[in-house]
Design brief:
mainly alpha, 71% helix
């Protein structure tokens, strides 16, 4: 736990410097913003990179296999990809890292791919969501688990970044990022549902309830179909590997119920918020809860639910900043949310992800 706490403190402090100093300066100082972002990403990637190969169960499921396979192909990338049996963009990342002939270089590069989209999302959304809060949410909910769910964590990060461009109505960029995520982990395709929700969800005063219910029911019926399609693709083994540690638990269900309640409350606060945005958040929270329940009988649904869960984790902090104006109340609510998100981080400790305890033969002072 020491490594995770130290790097989180380091990154949060750098984020505060960006948010409360450099963001307020003139544009010519933007170079310092990106230098601090780079240092933050570098710190997170280094902690991930120097860890032992026993930290993160999936390292020995597919990363080591690809790393060892790459030694047989030298500089023949196409030959490696044809024989990798993995999503080709992720296999390409492993191949590039393998050129350094060190598994730690591979782990470092993978974590760079996880962190970089999230930090750019935080930067691009800084006027809508606190930059530091976004980074903190990432540290509490995604970072530690990304040391195990490496492929899907990259896919989720790309999808979260795509959400900024969905909001900005930049369809080409958002769709490019979503389809790129698919080639890191096939479950990324489910984020097309988020694209469609925010593109076509237009609620008016007379019909918003009917439209909202119709959309939710349609999506609830659509998700099991996606699960079956992914299973038929021969990809179900990796989907099911995530069931034991994040999908179906009392903690997970309780948190998702809480988020549904929060979004529901803001949805019915008339004249104080944008109902379309609140409706989107309510839909994502309901879908996350729905996927959690379905994961009991359809293990793949748990993995699909990660996209909705992680997205609404980022959105809800910024949303509540706008809804509630009283500083004291906002402070209490924010810290309550952070406590819940911290809870999400610590639940990993009791699972099969094997990210605890942190171990590193390279940097031993980080060990538990």
């Amino acid at each position: 736990m020491k490594a995770y706490i130290l790097v989180s403190i380091f990154v949060v402090l750098l984020s505060l410097v960006n948010e409360f100093y450099f963001f307020k300066l003139k544009k010519e100082y933007n170079i310092f913003v990106f230098i601090i972002m780079f240092l933050s990403i570098l710190g997170l990637a280094l902690v991930a990179g120097v860890r032992d190969t026993t930290v993160g169960a999936d390292i020995n499921v597919y990363v080591m296999r690809l790393f060892n396979l790459s030694k047989n192909f030298g500089y023949n990338l196409l030959g490696f990809l044809r024989n990798s049996g993995s999503d080709f963009l992720f296999a390409t990342v492993v191949y590039i890292g393998s050129l350094f002939n060190d598994i730690h270089a591979v782990l470092f590069l993978i974590e760079l791919c996880v962190c970089t989209p999230i930090f750019f999302f935080a930067y691009l959304q800084r006027k809508n969501i606190s930059y530091t809060a976004t980074i903190f949410v990432f540290l509490m909910t995604m970072y530690v688990s990304s040391l195990n769910n490496m492929r899907q964590s990259i896919a989720i990060s790309l999808c979260v970044l795509s959400y900024h461009f969905i909001l900005e109505k930049k369809d080409k960029v958002s769709l490019l990022l979503i389809f790129s995520s698919f080639f890191f982990h096939k479950t990324g395709l489910v984020f097309l549902g988020v694209y469609l929700i925010d593109k076509f969800l237009k609620l008016d005063k007379n019909s918003f309830s009917l439209k909202l219910i119709t959309l939710i029911v349609t999506l609830l019926l659509f998700l099991p179909l996606v699960d079956n399609l992914i299973s038929l693709s021969g990809y179900s083994y990796y989907i099911e590997a995530g069931f034991n540690y994040r999908d179906f638990s009392i903690n997970s269900i309780a948190k998702k119920f809480l988020f549904v309640t929060m979004w529901g409350i803001t949805f019915f606060l008339k004249d104080e918020i944008d109902r379309n945005k609140s409706a989107s958040g309510l839909i994502y929270s309901i879908l996350a809860l729905y996927c959690t329940f379905l994961s009991f009988s359809l293990p793949g649904m748990g993995r699909l639910g990660y996209y909705f869960t992680d997205l609404q984790n980022f959105l809800i902090v910024g949303h509540f900043y706008k809804v509630f104006k009283q500083k004291r109340f906002m402070s209490l609510l924010t810290f309550a949310l952070f406590a819940i998100l911290w809870w999400d981080m610590t639940t990993v400790e009791n699972d099969s992800a094997k990210v605890y305890p942190y171990k590193s033969e390279i940097v031993r002072f980080l060990n538990e």
